Amino acid sequence: MAEQRAQWGSRLGFILAAAGSAVGLGNIWKFPYITGENGGGWFVLIYLMCIAFVGLPIMMAEILIGRTAQNSPVGAFRTLSRPGSPWLGVGWLGVAAAFVILSYYSVVAGWAMHYTWISLTETFTGKSPEQIGDTFDALFESPKLNLFWHTLFMAITIGIVMAGVRRGLELCAKILMPTLFLLLLVLFLYATTTDGFGKAFTFIFAPNAEKLTPAGVLEALGHSFFTLSLGMGAMITYGSYLKREDDLVAASITVSVLDTTVALLACLMLFPIIFTVGLEPAAGPGLVFISIPIAFAQMPGGALLAPTFFVLLTFAALTSAISLLEVAVSYFIDERGWHRVKATLVCGGSILVIGIPSALSGGTKLFGESFQSLTKYLHVNEGKGFNWFDFFDYVATNWMLPLGGLGIALFAAWRVGAKAREEGFKAGTKFAKLYWGWVLLLRFVVPIAVLLVFLNAIGVLQRLGLTGNGP
Ligand code: TRP
């Protein structure tokens, strides 16, 4: 191809874009609620260990594959193995996962936008908990609202990805990420002044193993994976826009630390608010969309805090969505020679359409109840089946990401040539000493860990009576 391959404008730009991919709904919506459900304490500690010993090595592997091959996932596996190799399947799986994940991720991102809007126009202040619960049900069940916000969110994502690596992804990350950190800091500082802060701090950090189960450990492991955007080649794609001599070890560490900091700060701002108004930390997925608005409705300054929080959530979701779309787009640019504009419109447009059933899952029989009775035959979710939205989430996080992550770890550890691997890892880094530690983790610890997550997620461990939960 005559056109030169796109590259990041600066190291900081890459780090912010990669952090933007990692920091998302996973940090601000999911991590707090699974921490709540697992009782905090030990769960948080185990999560931190999973990030350091499983997530971080895989992130390094992904960036190494992309940066060495200077190619998006499918092409990267070909360049580093051979044409027609079965390893290419891992790349294909990643591209497919991008379509699946973004299609429903965008629906949830749409909820964050809707909440931003109503917190500004109607405000939650003065509403009763029941009214706020009804607000969520009304949104969840409304085909019109879901379709509107899903479409708007996809349109914005498409617009940014279309502008390219430097003028789209990088520029956007440079504006949104510092804003996100600032908003989070403001909310966190506010939380430190509330009565619930001490209690929340103890809840999150004091060693408490009471509620921790083997299933909880595997949940921490699986989440360390999702929160760092691993397992589908997003970091391969972002790494492919790096120069060969850039330090990938320091970059991976920085991104992981940023991601973890945001997840912990999110807990440290949400739980004090929850405790101050006497709500339950184990509220599940409704924590952010129901409990938090209820809390803001009763707090001084809540009318300002609520929109701040939902803008934060929207920005976090947007930079992640951009990375998901970029994986699909880069495939069509690199492998099919498409122009970026065409690739973005076709991929983004398809994802918009594929997301429609998810947007309608709460409000129509077709994609809600009827689809659910169909999936019952798959014996998933304790035989209850899933609506379309939950089904996509289930397939992506339980099957596609762990399988992709396993493939990536095995590929980087065993298949990539020893010389390319060692030189790639050591290029431009002060951390060359960590090389063997990384290889050993990647060869043995990571595959076993990922395999356990996978077996748990698809219910094998449960059937063997080893853990309590499963689909
Ligand atoms: N990491 C993001 C989050 O925490 C989600 C995400 C973006 C993702 N890109 C990804 C997850 C790629 C897996 C793979 O919300």
Secondary structure tally, helices: 21
CATH class: Mainly Alpha
So what's the overall shape? Answer: globular
Bound molecules: tryptophan
In CATH terms, what is the architecture?
Answer: Up-down Bundle
CATH superfamily: Amino acid/polyamine transporter I
Our Rg estimate from Cα atoms comes to 21 Å
Describe the main β-sheet briefly.
Answer: none
How many strand units?
Answer: 0
- How much of the sequence lies in strands comes to under 5%
- Structural class comes to mainly alpha
As for the number of domains, it is 1
Would you give the CATH topology? Amino acid/polyamine transporter I
The overall pLDDT average reads: 90
Compute the separation of the termini in Å: 46 Å
The percent range for helix content is: over 70%
Helix and strand run: HHHHHHHHHHHHHHHHHHHHH
Spans of at least 5 consecutive residues whose pLDDT stays below 50 are none
Quick summary:
This protein has helices spanning 11-22, 25-37, 42-69, 73-80, 88-121, 129-141, 143-162, 165-192, 197-205, 214-227, 234-239, 248-276, 286-298, 302-336, 340-354, 356-359, 366-375, 388-415, 418-426, 435-457, 460-463.
Describe it for me?
- This protein has 471 residues and is mainly alpha-helical.
- The protein has one domain (11-463): Amino acid/polyamine transporter I (Up-down Bundle).
- Helices cover 75% and strands 0% of the residues.
- The protein contains 21 helices and no strands.
- The structure holds tryptophan.
- Residues 21-22, 24-27, 226-227, 229, 231-232, 234, 320, 323-324, 401 line the site of tryptophan (TRP).
- The site of tryptophan has 16 residues, from helix 1, helix 2, helix 10 and helix 14.
